[in-house]
Design goal:
7-stranded mixed beta sheet
């Protein structure tokens, strides 16, 4: 499985960015796709997640500013970030919780992280 994330960059406070993350490989289905972030000196934290059924979950710090969406047909998750603040500066990682066919012919669960993409909000 591969997760390709892109869309990070430099933006001024109040600006917007859109992150994308596409999953590929031997996947039966992706139950949850989400975005996490990690700022220097901080632990990685959940930003937003979306299930295949359309349920979403957001960190309190981004509610009302960030919107997560999925294109299940493309195994892709997006994160639209509006009204960005300097405290949103971090490396953003996507994660997929998916199922796949095991060697024994049974469906197995797994999780996979994509590479990070830097988001910098500067004055």
């Amino acid at each position: 499985v591969q997760l390709q994330a892109y869309g990070g960059g430099l933006v001024q406070p109040g600006g917007s960015l859109r992150l994308s993350c596409a999953a590929s490989g031997s996947i039966v289905s992706i139950r949850v796709m989400g975005w996490y972030r990690q700022a220097p000196g901080n632990q990685r934290e959940l930003v937003a997640a979306a299930t295949s059924g359309g349920s979403t979950n957001y960190a309190d710090s981004v509610k009302g500013r960030f919107t997560i969406s999925r294109d299940n047909a493309k195994n892709t998750v997006y994160l639209l970030m509006d009204s960005l603040k300097p405290e949103d500066t971090a490396v953003y990682y996507c994660k997929a919780e998916y199922t796949y066919w095991g060697m024994d012919g049974k469906v197995r669960n797994a999780g996979y992280w994509g590479q990070g993409t830097q988001v910098t909000v500067f004055q």
